[in-house]
Amino acid sequence: MTKLKRILASKTTVTLVWVVGVMAIWEVFAFIVAATKRTPINVLPHVWQIVESFFSDKAVTGKMTMAQLIATSCGETLSRAAIGFLIGTVLGYLLALLMNMSGIVEKIAFPYLMIIQMIPILGMAPIILAITGDIDSSRMVIAAILTFYPVSTNTLAGFKAVEKEKHELMYSYAATGFQRYIKTYIPFSIPYFFTGLKISAPMAITASILVDTLQGGNGLGCMLSQSLKGGMTRLVFWDIVVISAIIGILSYYLMGLIEKLICPYKRRGQEVIL
Amino acid sequence: MAEEIRKETAREKDVEIMLDNVGMVYKTTDGKDVTALTGVSFDIHKGEFISLLGPSGCGKTTLLRIIADLITPTSGNVLIGGETPRQARLKKRYAMVFQSAVLYDWRTVRKNVMLPLEIMKVPKKERIERADKMLKLVGLSDFADHYPRQLSGGMQQRVGIARALAIRPEILLMDEPFSALDEFTREKLHDDLLRIWRKTNKTVIFVTHNIQESVFLSDRVCVLSPHPGRLSAVVDIDLPRPRTMDIKDTPEFTALVAKVRNSFEGV
User: Is-above-0.95 flag for pTM?
Assistant: First the structure.
């Protein structure tokens, strides 16, 4: 490959092309909107307007500037998402272990796991709210439910993917059931487990924001809906959209980073790039 | 009674593994019987290098798996040092080497060799010592801290051998260990295996479908024929030891290869 080709094919270049491309298309439409609509900011503001509003020190609500407002709302939404994500991860992992240990549990649980996934999350939210009676806990519960399924199924797939020879090896060493899990199943399935985490981390955040909008209080989703209803400038909405997209992507990369930290063997040599 | 007498004579002749009329019949899903192996009887002596040679479907791997207690024969008896395969397995009297190295890619080479020792609850200090000793034996001391994916196929297979030897088994069960390697690497590993075998005095049972390989390595070649899988001949390989690659060019070697080839039935 020539040097130019190598540079063009590199991951950074691809990412850069994407970012620039999306911004360019955005701007093209923003200009069209600005020329044709009466309140262009409601439809599609310019990228610089969004960036500018984020760093401006004008108060958008009460005494808070945009950056302060978003930072506090982020903290609230993300902490709920994180708690729900943790609960969902732990429960999902435990269920995967149980399904792997017992064929009966697998037969009973596995087909119905999918149903949870198929129920629209917003349809479920009012029911969960009615059960818990508290909007903050419902937000966590929903983040947990969404996390649960990808973690559980991916981890189980990891357990099932252990080669026959590894089982025979363990058998020839007369390993106990506990040793099989500690030495073979669990370390083997770590990359699968992280695939589940990478899917569910952005989902937990999205769910948390969505459920925020259902009722008042605080959090990104609440600010977002207030902004849409005209309670504060429409730019709050746009800033939150951009920020939450960035947070979602970062949460994915965070999972990848943690995976690389616990799996040193994935770091060296010719990497398998996800 | 007859078995008692056989056992007695077995002990005298230093028999390590005794196969007595071993047979294996599988049931297919539609209820038909398939005979994978029938009427296999022979003795393997302590420290002997035995090959189980045959085309696919001859039951050579089935036989190895019976000795390894991975499957139970439907007829006949297997005794390993006077014990059942299960007892022999629980006492770690044998170790297995598979066609692929079956390494744990999240463990370094040294930790791969230490794996069985961890399961046997050998103290950590001794684990490391034993692993390093085995890695020296297979010539991989410099790669102890590498990960398996950084090694070539031949090196990976050597880690597999080191791991098998680490539990200090009396018997090494090898299931086509070199069949996935290229010819050059395979010849190098033949040399290494013979050197290790001479040093450690293990009994080796080596499954292969390569006639040259079996003749070059073994004291005796057990020729298995398919449909149904059965032992059709046991050929003594009386070539001098230690053997080097040059022996493959001698007329004696060629004659033995021909003899082994001619003992197949119905292929």
Answer: no
Residue A44 within any structural domain of the chain? no
- ipTM for the predicted complex: 0.87
Structural domain tally of chain A?
1
For B236-266, how does the pLDDT look when each residue is reduced to its tens digit (9 = 90+)?
A: 998 888 888 888 889 999 999 999 999 887 6
Instruction: Note whether residue A274 is domain-resident.
Output: no
**CA separation for the pair B234, B231 (Å, rounded):** 8
Is A169 at the interface with chain B, CB within 8 A? Answer: yes
At position A159, the amino acid (one-letter code) is F
Strand partners, B80: B17, B83
Check which CATH number belongs to the domain holding A190 and give it: 1.10.3720.10
CA distances from B262 to A21, A268, B50, B87, B258 (A): 71, 50, 19, 38, 6
CA distances (Å), origin B33, targets B56, B62, B77, B80: 19, 16, 20, 28
Whether A183 and chain B come into contact, CB under 8 Å, resolves to yes
Nearest to B143 by CA among B125, B158, B161: B158
- Residue-range definition of the domain harbouring residue A172: 68-264
Q: Which residue of A has its CA nearest to B163?
A: A169
Q: How many CB pairs under 8 A join A and B?
A: 57
Average of per-residue pLDDT values in chain B:
89
